[in-house]
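pipeline stage [seq->struct] | target=10916_t:CDS:1 | organism=Diversispora eburnea | residues=355
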Amino acid sequence: MTTQTTLSIANNDHSTKLVYQFLVSSPSSPSSFSNVNIQESNNGKNISGSNSVITYLSENFGISSNKVIGDTWLNTTQVIEQDSSKVSKVAKDLDEHLANRTYIVENYLTIVDLVTFTRIYDYFVKLSDQQRFGIPNLTRWFNFIQNTAVKELAPRCGLNLVEINLEAPKVSKIIESQSSQSNEQKSDQKESKKEVNKTDKKGSKKESKKEVKKDSKKDSSSGVTVPIIPSLLDLRVGHIIKVEKHPNADSLYVEQIDVGEENPRTVVTATSSEGKVELVEPPVGSKPGEKVYFEGYQDQVLNPKKKIWETLQPGLITTQEKIASWTNPDTKNVHLLRTISDFCKVANIINASIK
């Protein structure tokens, strides 16, 4: 006699419904799965509770995962269902966790991805474009899951496709902000000097002026201590719209490149006859000016007076998977180059230097 296992879930339990639908539709679903249903029954084994049901499915029917990490995220995201005020904190934790990951637990889809997608869904739908850009790793992961693993199944569970704007916001010119800061500093210094001139004693005048100069030096030196990391580079998707040979040099090319600004930029490129050269291609659908960053380094762009590119360039290389990357010389960790939607790749060359 065959034992029937009944999974008892709430009507609004989208997580378990999606996992169940995914397993039912999977070509690799075992035949024994036909003995599992989500209808109420008086016979056989009865399992209730969202995480208990999901864990049962995970352990018995084909989407394996690292149990320790998997259970951790199942419990973490279940907090959202119990207390919606904590969803923002969970979203930030997920964003940090996904900085160097395509999926939450393994390097392939697991039940944890499906469950997390449904539990974060209501929160994510209500976010503005700006708020989504503030959690780029979670946004990238959410968009990837909804367009691959659950594209056909999610609507059956009441989860419709979420339209996500992948065009990064325009970045204000750093030069303008620097000049305004410089003007503010000059203004502050003038005010300080005026106060100095009001003093009757010559000795106190000299001391005040010395203090102003010392403070100024401290401000200028503070910028020098900024470490050289990839987020200091403002990398953007560029569309080469015109290429022609330099009129005065055979080894140079003059290019017009659209980087999302009002007018294209003119760039002069040096070429070499030795070796093979390929362009690093952004993901399909990328737009000129879209933000490009190394995973784990998507912070706000700074502008210290240092040779940033010259320092970082030796660590730029294509991986065995033909993805552009930067290797941290201290930790030896590899950080992949990507936009919010996917990785930036070359067509053929691996272990190639990027210049």
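stage status: PASS
auto-comment: The CA atoms of residues 224 and 305 lie 7 Å apart. The longest helix spans residues 174-197.
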